[in-house]
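INTERNAL AUDIT FORM
Audit reference: QA-55
Scope: verify that the stored structure record matches its stored sequence.
Auditor: D.O.
Record contents follow.
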Amino acid sequence: MESAEWAEITTAEELRELLGEPGARAAAKERRSLHEFDRAWLAASPLCLLATCAADGTCDVSPKGDPPGSTVVLDDTTIALPERPGNRRVDGYRNVLSNPHAGLIFLVPGRGDTLRINGRARLVLDAPFLDDMVLEGHRPALALVVEIEAIFYHCSKAFLRSRLWDPASWDAGDLPSRAMIARTLERPEASLAELQQYYGPEYATRLYR
């Protein structure tokens, strides 16, 4: 892509000159420990977006979904998320091994605001609290433990602009099905019929195995 005519921001000073300084309340809203509101939010959240970065700068954002309450609060400054069966790429976990810094956003369906937690992460192979994470007979192989360094709420502007929770905006249009995506980009050796069956109704029965 030709970018010779693009105008870019290259310094923090340029960025501040363009967008301005944050308001006093926005600048000061970071906290380092959980409030009772945060605990209630974590208990209600079924989905978290986990952002990590390897030592070489390689980034990853992975969705982590479970029934509400699956994030365990260990104390006022520590939370833990269970590992569930997936594609075994473990991109984010590998990043944590070389760079423990992580950012998490917890969503609650229907709410435009979100809870943000930044902290230092580590992978815990075994601990008593993993017994509290058993779901459908599945005890997680490990847990991601995050020691909180900053916690605050994001306002709802992004969700209002995107209309994410507005059913009237839910139109997938002509997007290809998951089976078609897999057939074209990931598993060309499989037939479309096989993949439609794989991603069909029974797919939801294999979430914890």
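Auditor finding: record pair retrieved intact. The CA atoms of residues 113 and 156 lie 4 Å apart.
Action required: none
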